[in-house]
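User:
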Amino acid sequence: MILQTERLTLRPWCEADAKSLYECAKDPEVGPIAGWPAHKSVEESLDVIRNVFTGKECYAICEKDNNI
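Assistant: Predicted structure:
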């Protein structure tokens, strides 16, 4: 399922999102607040996408203009 607003798209995560996820998730002030440690590599972020973010109600939030 894809949800859209005027500016944003909420869509399922895909493996191509690993680099973008890592850029946010490597910040030591982001992960611990959500209950997980900062990511140490793009590969770790890819593993999270493959094994955690596959849930039916887990969405990547992207700017509509660039899908990032």
